Amino acid sequence: QAAFVAGVAATRLDEPTAARRDLGTSIRSSDATLAGRSLVQLGVLERTQGNRLAAARAFEDAASKLRGQESGKALLLAAEDYQSAGRQTNARRCLDRAMAVSGDTGDQARRRLDTTGYAIQFGSFAQRSNAERQADRVRAEVQRNGLGQVRIRLEAGNWKVQAGTFADRAAAGRSLRRLGRGDAVVVAIGG
């Protein structure tokens, strides 16, 4: 427990080398809760250092050691960092696991799944009215091919016309090939 406290203190004092050393010690604890909380703290440190992929891995490892809401919250953090690192499939895996947690954590995971992964994009427009016209043009084809509803999202200052939510790029690519449209592309949702 002393190594954990020292690791937290070193993190707050912006001493990443000492923090990693001390947290590394407490991560190896036989107490799963202490090890999990140490991994969460390591994830926080990696995040503040700009190492989003390392942070995601630490949070996901923490979730395996923690229970209940603590585990679910670690999975939500892991998903956020995986998504930031461009690892949509890993983010969705964490969100799928977090959905099993009851209460707010499971609800948050369900909401985030809709905005994590890949979609088929039919255009990006500066004017919402142009996006709405494109959405009207592709709506029947999208529904006929079982891709759900066409949605218009404002991302990076442009109106994106998208459909489908896929766990990975390959699944989105297969659906795009079935559509046979040369004017659509697979994109990371929110990217």
Describe, in plain words, how this protein is organized in 3D.
The chain is of the alpha+beta class and 191 residues long. Helix content is 63%, strand content 14%. The chain is built from nine helices and four strands, in the order αααααααβαββαβ. The chain has helices at 2-12, 16-27, 32-48, 52-65, 68-84, 88-98, 104-113, 128-144, 169-179, and strands at 118-125, 150-155, 158-166, 185-188. A four-stranded antiparallel β-sheet has the order 2-3-1-4, with helices on one face. The protein is elongated. The relative contact order is 0.10.
Question: Can you tag this structure with a few keywords?
Answer:
alpha+beta, 191 residues, elongated, four-stranded antiparallel β-sheet
Strand residue content = 5-15%
- What is the CA-atom radius of gyration, in angstroms? 20 Å
The portion of residues assigned to helices is: 55-70%
Q: How would you write the strand order of the largest sheet?
A: 2-3-1-4
Number of helices: 9
- Globally, the shape reads elongated
Explain the layout of strands and helices.
Blueprint: H1 2-12, H2 16-27, H3 32-48, H4 52-65, H5 68-84, H6 88-98, H7 104-113, E1 118-125, H8 128-144, E2 150-155, E3 158-166, H9 169-179, E4 185-188
Antiparallel strand pairs: 1-3, 1-4, 2-3
